[in-house]
Design a protein that fits this description.
With 179 residues, the protein is mainly alpha-helical. Helix content is 72%, strand content 0%. The longest helix is centred in the first third of the chain and has 18 residues.
Length: 179
């Protein structure tokens, strides 16, 4: 896991671990989380079935969260994987519940912002991303707000977010925008 050899981890889990060993580890939140990350981070060039790996990542994140339900980082990863798979209707209630317990969790706020964005609830999305940004001035919320402000026709605010992002973001990420 630490060497980020994700395909080797998946091979170990799927082909080399006995059924008894896998069954014993199903309740270990950290093992489930690490296997989820392996499926989630496996590059498309390393996988012949990306959709299957996305589904497995979601399942393993879910296992981790269920094994340790008070860990909001696991919840953020689980709902983040669902959001990336466009399962926002399923993710949103879990995110909202997690935010009741930890209202300043940046990852959950980012996931909720994306849910609102896909629902075209612009004001709620902006407010949620602004909350995430208030917690971390170099938050990914900055990049999301650039797109969001463009979508609602507020190019001046988008440009301000772009200029803010130039201070810390990878320039290759910023190439998609021009002002």
């Amino acid at each position: 896991y630490n060497s980020q050899s994700f395909s080797d981890m998946i091979t170990l889990w799927e082909d080399k671990a006995s059924d008894d060993y896998r069954d014993a580890l199903l309740k270990d939140a950290w093992t489930q989380y690490r296997v989820a990350v392996a499926y989630d981070k496996l590059l498309p060039s390393q996988s012949t079935n990306t959709e299957t790996h996305k589904a497995k990542a979601i399942q393993f994140y879910r296992n981790a969260f269920e094994a340790m339900p008070l860990n909001t980082d696991f919840l953020a990863e689980y709902t983040g994987a669902m959001v990336r798979a466009l399962r926002t209707e399923e993710a949103k209630p879990l995110i909202l519940n997690g935010l009741k317990h930890q209202p300043k969790h940046e990852g959950l706020l980012l996931n909720l912002g994306y849910c609102y964005y896909t629902e075209k609830q612009w004001a709620l999305a902006i407010n949620t991303y602004q909350k995430a940004l208030s917690l971390n001035p170099e938050s990914q919320a900055t990049l999301s707000l650039i797109d969001l402000y463009i979508a609602v026709g507020q190019k001046d605010k988008a440009k301000a977010m772009y200029n803010r992002a130039k201070q810390w973001a990878d320039p290759t990420i910023l190439r998609g925008w021009s002002f």
